[in-house]
Every structure is written in structure tokens, then in C-alpha cells.
Amino acid sequence: MNIYSFNLGRLYIHDPANELFGFLEKPKNELNVKELEEDRLNRLNKYDSKLYDEFKNNLEKITKILETEVDVDELHRDSIRELYRVFAIKDEYEVAKMHLSTTFKTLDDQFSSWKNISFYLAPPMLSFLRDKKTGRPRKIRFPGYIAIPLFKLLNSMSGLRGTWLDPLQFSSDKRRDLEHKKIFINSLDTISKMDGGEKKLKLSGLVNASFDVKGYGPVREKSYQEFKKIIMEK
Description:
Blueprint: H1 3-14, H2 33-47, H3 52-66, H4 73-87, H5 92-101, H6 103-110, E1 118-121, E2 140-143, H7 144-156, H8 172-192, H9 198-211, H10 217-233
Antiparallel strand pairs: 1-2
Helix pairs in contact: 2-3, 2-4, 3-4, 3-8, 4-9, 5-6, 5-7, 8-9, 8-10
């Protein structure tokens, strides 16, 4: 067991209500459509305020698609969640932010120095290093005194996201995820022009197909290609 996992266990025993373990709790109340829209708008604004207007316009587009359909509450909420997911791409900036704002901050406050922690990462720029058994990018051990300063550097550069200065814009992962977003938005445009009754069915198919694009590296690439195939067949 590495020190990171051990310290997480100690923290849970000491403070099970800590925000780090929020994922273990079920939501007390399911957000309605309006509340969910506001929640995701706030999250998106924190993720990248430059995307706020575009995201809001597409939220309105989803509402318009479903305004004449019946029994659409669950689909409406699923569509909002998926729209947010394709906008808030979990790139290296976001991964660095997540590490710094949760795990490391908590562990640094509660326990020994983060310099004792190690991380196993598979950076896109080192994706040519492959695991011989799986053929997937190999995870490399990074000690905390190297990983955390890198996370801090990436986090400080997040304002470059989406600009011509963005050093991550040329990575294959980023290009794929941006293409995913473009296909999703273009599909919403197409669905909005369809006849009533057909819109609900097509939107449900789009959301479900997009939702299956998960994972990282080759796993995500495979699921993304399946998504594109489904969309092209529709």
C-alpha cells in the first residue's frame, strides 16, 4: 500500500464528512431542470468562463427541442449533464486542478508532506511508451516533489485553454475531445429542425451514444469511434 492510499484511509477514519469523500454520499434531492441548468452554468463558468455564452446557447437549444415533446423531464436533465460533460473536457489543466483542489490540499492539511506521495501517470506527451501486455500507454511513477509542482504549473496555465497559445491544443486527445463536442453541438442543430415526436427520440439517441464515450487513451478512442459510427448511421 502506498502512502497516498494509507493517508486517505486515515483521513476517512478521522473525518468521514470531509469534502473529499462527498462522492460516497447520495444526493439528498434530485435537482430539477432549472436548478440543474444553473448548477452546470456555474460549474462551466469556473471551468472556463470563455465558454459560458456558447454553453448557455446550447442549453436553450435543448429546451427548445423538447418544448413540444411529452414526458421529457429525465431526458432533459440527462441532456444538460451530457452537454456539460462534452464542454468541460477533462484535459491536463483540469486534472491538475482536481488534484490540487481536493486530494493534495486535504492531505497537506491533515498529514505529512506531499513529498512522500507518488503518482502513476500516463502523460500524453509520453504516450509512445507502451505497456507490453496491454499495448496501452504505460503509467510512470512520479514522486510528489515532481508531480505537484507540475500540477501547479498546469493549473496556472489553464487560462490559455482554447487560445492560440494553448500548448495542449495539438495533442490527439484534445483534438478528439473537441471534435466530440463539435459533433454533439451540430447534432443538436440538426435535431432542432426535425418534426415533433422525432426530436425526443433523436436527442435520446445522441445523449446515450455520447455518454458511452468514456475512459482515457485507447479506451476512450475506441468508444469515440463507436460514437461517431452511431451518429453517422442516424
